[in-house]
Amino acid sequence: MLKGEGLWFRYGAKLPWVVQDQAIAIIPGEVVGLMAPSGYGKTTLAKLLAGYLRPTQGRVTLDEQPLPSRGYCPVQLVFQNPELSVNPRWRIDRILREGHPPPQHILDTLGIHPGWLTRYPHELSGGELQRVAIARVLNRQTRYLIADEMTAMLDANTQALIWQVVLDFARHYHVGIIAISHDQPLLTRICQGHTIKRLNASKSVSLTKA
Questions:
Q1: How do the domains of the chain map onto residue ranges?
Q2: CB–CB of 138/165 below 8 Å?
Q3: Per-residue model confidence (pLDDT) at position 206
Q4: What is the pTM of this model?
Q5: Exposure of 169 by Cβ count < 10 A (0-12 exposed, 13-18 middle, 19+ buried)?
Q6: Rounded distance between C-alpha atoms, residue 62 and residue 196, angstroms
Q7: What pLDDT, in 10s, does the model give residues 27-47?
Q8: Cβ contacts of residue 136 below 8 Å, gap of 6+?
Q9: What tens digit of pLDDT does each residue of 150-160 get?
Q10: Measuring CA to CA, which of 1, 15, 20, 148 is 20 to 30 A from 91?
Q11: What is the pLDDT of residues 120-129, one digit of tens each?
Q12: CA-CA-CA-CA torsion sign (175, 178, 183, 184)
């Protein structure tokens, strides 16, 4: 289980709390939608769960242990802005090989062309780089995927294609997914009867069914 308990976070001692007493847990194979308007701390909570930030109070555990501090983390986060998900100094082929290489059929389905592999991130468009950022985490070492508005910058047809690939991968490899968005129709489609959690600015998330 990936679990966040009693999470509080702020970016400075005199600044307001960005995350206040939040708790969330997800098991392998589960799809959880996390919904809130802009400014409610969704991205900060995602960074806490993926180990990008340490909570001011509370803890995040993976199978009751702290997240690993070295190597490829089993909890992977894909941002809305793909530049945040990849190392700008690496070529695309190295980015895709950071964990266990994704299966070739995933690269093909996502439309990742062989000619991209020798390029650097800045040489791809935003949509192309987002496909790379998503493909990078669809490998055997990823156990949990946190998708923070992952497809918000893409058109509806591309969104549908990417989510189908991600959900098929998650079902096959029993990967847990936290999908973060303010778009309830999208979360309803991808959760398909799993849980949607509405993030409250001052209390723990409340549970409703999609």
A1: 30-37+72-209
A2: yes
A3: 37
A4: 0.88
A5: buried
A6: 21
A7: 999 999 998 888 888 999 999
A8: 85, 86, 95, 96, 98, 99, 102
A9: 998 888 899 99
A10: 148
A11: 999 999 999 9
A12: positive
Residue 76 CA to its chain's centroid (Å): 6
Q: What angle do CA 89, 62, 179 make, to 5 degrees?
A: 65
How does strand 65-66 pair with strand 2-9? unpaired
Neighbours of 44 (CB within 10 A): 20
* Token digits of residue 103: 């299966």
Summarize the chain as % helix, strand, coil (round to 5). Answer: 35, 25, 40
Report yes or no: 4 and 23 within 8 Å, Cβ to Cβ. Answer: yes
Helix axes 156-173, 126-137, angle to 10 degrees: 10
What 3-state class would DSSP assign to 140?
coil
Q: Which CATH architecture has domain 30-37+72-209?
A: 3-Layer(aba) Sandwich (3.40)
Helix residue ranges per DSSP H, 51-173: 92-96, 104-109, 126-137, 156-173
Residue with tokens 């047809």: 157
pLDDT tens column, 44-101:
999 999 999 999 999 999 999 999 988 899 999 999 999 988 999 999 999 999 888 9
Token code pair at residue 148: 């923070």
